[in-house]
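in:
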């Protein structure tokens, strides 16, 4: 389905009825990462997947896609579908978007699942890395996309899940340099959401990959403890929806 948001297109899918679950993808991804999940989970409930701004078939609204911009786009979809409350699960950047929704529209959220994600803002080192990413994308988008996705999981899992990773890279290459940079700068500039997560009284989970090369597992464990968030540990890397598919599906069926 397609709707307009700030004079640009938003693409989303909806399957099933009742007890809505919103699945949000991460950076360089699209709603298609959730296709199998939506197919199975929608047997028991309504499941919505959305192409976030500048990703997949959704358009752009500016040179920077802030997490607030992403949040506004998601709310546009929910309002169109007349969804007043929902459970949310988001992979990586999708989790950052959920945190922005929590701060702006707390009554919309009944449960939170942050998949390979964190409520914390970027530290100075990560912010500088985002700047380097923007520069690299301007010079050689193709090389950046391939490298960035390969670096999300172990060398062993790059081989084990080669078809899935190659498909992910192929889809990511369709993104324009401008949209990759817009999301990169949006993530760089996001605020800290740790206190908002702590104050949230609904069910809340962080799914952590113990070999995640992107997130500091010790820090995430500390955040989960300090915010009274349930921590679910999977054995692999940053792409739990590929690397630990059966475990994540079981979690979403039973906890989300």
């Amino acid at each position: 389905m397609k709707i307009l948001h700030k004079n640009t297109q938003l693409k989303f899918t909806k399957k099933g009825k009742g007890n809505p679950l919103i699945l949000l993808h991460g950076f360089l991804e699209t709603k298609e990462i959730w296709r199998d999940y939506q197919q199975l989970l929608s047997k028991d409930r309504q499941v919505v997947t959305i192409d976030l701004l500048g990703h997949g078939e959704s358009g752009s609204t500016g040179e920077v896609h802030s997490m607030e911009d992403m949040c506004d786009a998601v709310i546009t979809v929910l309002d169109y579908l007349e969804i007043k409350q929902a459970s949310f699960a988001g992979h990586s950047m999708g989790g950052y978007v959920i945190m922005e929704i929590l701060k702006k529209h707390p009554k919309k959220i009944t449960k939170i699942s942050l998949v390979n994600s964190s409520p914390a803002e970027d530290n100075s080192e990560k912010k500088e890395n985002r700047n380097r990413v923007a520069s690299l994308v301007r010079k050689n988008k193709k090389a950046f996309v391939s490298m960035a996705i390969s670096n999300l999981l172990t060398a062993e899992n790059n081989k084990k899940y080669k078809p899935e990773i190659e498909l992910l890279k192929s889809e990511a290459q369709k993104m324009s340099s401008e949209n990759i940079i817009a999301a990169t700068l949006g993530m760089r500039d996001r605020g800290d959401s740790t206190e908002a997560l702590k104050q949230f009284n609904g069910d809340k989970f962080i799914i952590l990959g113990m070999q995640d090369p992107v997130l500091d597992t010790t820090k995430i464990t500390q955040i989960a403890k300090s915010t009274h968030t349930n921590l679910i540990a999977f054995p692999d890397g940053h792409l739990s929806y590929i690397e630990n598919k059966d475990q994540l599906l079981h979690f979403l069926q039973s906890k989300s």
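note: The chain is about 45% helix and 20% strand.
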